[in-house]
């Protein structure tokens, strides 16, 4: 171990190679039920050159590497080592916002950049990034995009990776590749002189290489920067609620709006999740949950640089009329919540503690892709299973996010629990396992297969598994990148 540590010190410096037990312990587990394992070392590179040297060293020594870019708390087990002797490659030092291009609405960021860091800098250029649902304060922008976390604005998403475009990747074999436009026209500085903006993720040539890194949990390589598409910062921004006691009552109205491409933010929350996002403390969340409607469709209207007021006014009037056709109310205030409070929670830098942990201190998620019309049946299944395993359905938080202009949706069940209560932990483990199996059997598509989901997905699709292993052999022939994850 001393020899390996000395090798890494030569690459990144002694202060950036850590083996103190208390530090290693923080990387040995997360909020998931993944089996804990303590890494051998933690190394913190400062740029892509050091990342490449670390990966080449790993190939020479046969050392497993586990890339990490977001800070704790982490949730899905993808950054917990699966193999003894692993080295954590913590990319948190790589915090440069390399470029913000207002004209082309593009930003290039390193993996250590968080939403809390990026959003204020974008705002200076009258830009913003389409956000996931209230990301934690330590969440890496690039990790969120690579893991395909859903965005709040479906109408600006034309394909699953949006708004991620070009990237720079250090593959598991130690080679560096710039994907998309960035890999076609020389160095970045040369491209900028020619007013090129890395707006496309396709290529180089006929292969979309960046797709091999999406939802790969760091098993193919390490992305050292990514170009992301931004949106103009609204001059006028309003938020509205459409409450209902049944999810089914909202779907016809939602499909009509999605067809017209109305609204910016467009998401469904049940009372449990909305209370956790805007509530203060466990007692405040419980009280607020009782006040809120069972279901709320949250809709944002934004007016940007061209006729902003007129755009918001006509959409608001149209949406009120459409809501009346479906027997629904289109409101700026509902019992327990006001538009400004929720809008601030969705768009401003997040607060501590992370909203999923505010109620009980722990939370386990089940999420997958489906279509909007099928979500009520998944909700019924989850409620039924929770009763079977002695967990109150009223405790389940539900988040439904239309994606890719509404042709698909992200369906998420959040299961808060007390991590100190062993009986409750056991109950949640059973519900998580049995619920995942039942939902997959019902048609849930686990496109981000963490933990036990990986076995469920790949054991049922032999051809995809064979193909992925062939791709892995090309980009990471020595299997040094996060071995033990996915089907590797």
Describe the protein.
This protein is an alpha+beta fold. The protein has three domains: 89 residues, Uridine Diphospho-n-acetylenolpyruvylglucosamine Reductase, domain 2; 136 residues, 2-Layer Sandwich (Uridine Diphospho-n-acetylenolpyruvylglucosamine Reductase, domain 3); 207 residues, 3-Layer(aba) Sandwich (Vanillyl-alcohol Oxidase, Chain A, domain 3), CATH 3.40.462.10. The chain contains 15 helices and 19 strands.
Mean pLDDT: 95
Number of helices: 15
Q: Characterize the main sheet.
A: 6 strands, antiparallel
Strand order of the largest sheet: 12-14-13-18-19-17
Short structural description:
The protein has 488 residues and is an alpha+beta fold. It has helices at 2-12, 21-26, 48-61, 115-124, 141-146, 188-193, 248-260, 271-278, 281-291, 308-325, 339-347, 375-388, 422-442, 452-458, 462-475, and strands spanning 17-18, 41-43, 65-68, 87-90, 97-101, 106-109, 127-128, 164-171, 176-178, 221-229, 231-232, 236-244, 266-270, 295-303, 333-334, 337-338, 362-370, 397-403, 408-417. The protein folds into 3 domains: 2-90, Uridine Diphospho-n-acetylenolpyruvylglucosamine Reductase, domain 2 (2-Layer Sandwich), CATH 3.30.43.10; 97-232, Uridine Diphospho-n-acetylenolpyruvylglucosamine Reductase, domain 3 (2-Layer Sandwich), CATH 3.30.465.10; 236-442, 3-Layer(aba) Sandwich (Vanillyl-alcohol Oxidase, Chain A, domain 3).
